[in-house]
Amino acid sequence: MATLWRDNWLYVSRTEAFQKPGAFRVLSIGNQNYLVVRSRQGNLRGFHNTCRHRGSLLCDKKEGQLGQTGRIVCPYHQWTYDSEDGTLLRTSSFAEPEDFKRSSYRLFRVAVAEWQGCVFLHPDPNATWNVDTLFQRPTDNFGNFPLQSMRIGHRWRTEMACNWKTFWENFNECLHCPAVHPELTHLVPLYSRRIVDPADVPDWDDHAESNDPHYRGGLRDGAEDVVHRRERSGACHYFADIGRSRAGSDLRLDLAESFYRRLCRSRAHLFAASTGA
Questions:
Q1: Which CATH architecture group holds 5-148?
Q2: Against a cut of 0.70, is the pTM above it?
Q3: In angstroms, rounded to a whole number, what is the distance separating the alpha carbons of residues 237 and 177?
Q4: In sequence order, which residues have a C-beta less than 8 Å from that of residue 176 and are 6 or more positions away?
């Protein structure tokens, strides 16, 4: 936990989730809880979601909107903080000790960065944003992905009782595809061969010029590519972009989302079974 999750940039949400001042989202990593908020000045700021008084959670909802003042108010004793820099503005005590300095009770900050419509946080408030290091590849590789213009159209959440490494290893192979995802292999015949790329087998060049989807990849003959899907991750959070082409309808988009949920459920069932959960 300390080596991976607390020493890396973690995906929080899309920027559009913070359209108005006071909009916030909460992210939990292990036993730590973080708060990202759009300040009254319009900046994205991040803090530990913990009151400096008694350690109460400041925001107990996953997302929402601060009150009209745009300030962060603890629900326990109403200690009030500035959403811009975490400064303690007010306490509910009738009197404060003479040696009490509000400046010593700011919220603990975390670093926040925006990139291409995505919001990330780093538990280290002094962390430096470097997108090339984060994705371990040049950002030019994202040139064909219109990340900045994408919008959230649908959310689906599930929890899987599995080791997170088991989840990611699943995407390194397609040996499981015919048994676990028969509907997917029906659409993409190459997957029925338990491979994800035509060059994954030694004799791939024997069929290099073939138009048969069993060898070249892609959808089976007769299938329509009316939606596109891309999957990305940010630490322990994972999300997919399912977009509609101009030829696609809302109904077809709904079908694509339903299809993708079935794939996720089959994965979750498999992972739970592999860990005995």
A1: 3-layer Sandwich (2.102)
A2: yes
A3: 23
A4: 170, 270
Each domain of the chain, given as residue ranges in start order, spans 5-148, 156-275
Cα–Cα distances in Å, from 13 out to 26, 90, 147, 229?
Answer: 10, 30, 13, 18
For residue 63, give the nearest of 20, 27, 39, 15 by alpha carbon: 27
Looking from the CA of 102 toward its CB, the CA atoms found within 13 Å total 15
CA distance 108 to 76: 18
How many CA within 13 A on the CB side of residue 119? Answer: 23
Q: Label residue 117 left, alpha or beta by phi (over 0 means left) and psi (-120 to 50 means alpha).
A: left
Per the CB < 8 A criterion, the answer to whether 34 and 112 are in contact is: no
Q: Give the whole-angstrom CA distance, residue 45 versus residue 35.
A: 8
Residue-by-residue pLDDT tens, the chain, 277 positions: 667 777 889 999 999 999 999 999 999 888 899 999 999 999 999 999 999 999 999 999 999 999 988 999 999 999 999 999 999 999 988 888 888 999 999 999 999 999 999 999 999 999 999 888 887 777 777 777 788 888 777 777 777 777 777 777 887 888 989 998 898 899 899 999 999 899 998 988 888 889 898 898 888 887 765 444 444 444 444 445 445 555 555 656 677 777 777 877 787 777 777 666 5
DSSP code per residue over 29-92? ETTEEEEEEE-TTS-EEEEESB-TTT--BS--SSEEE--TT--EE-TTT--EE-TTT--EEE--
d(CA 32, CA 123) in angstroms, rounded, equals: 9
* Burial of residue 246 (number of CB atoms within 10 Å: 0-12, 13-18, 19+): exposed
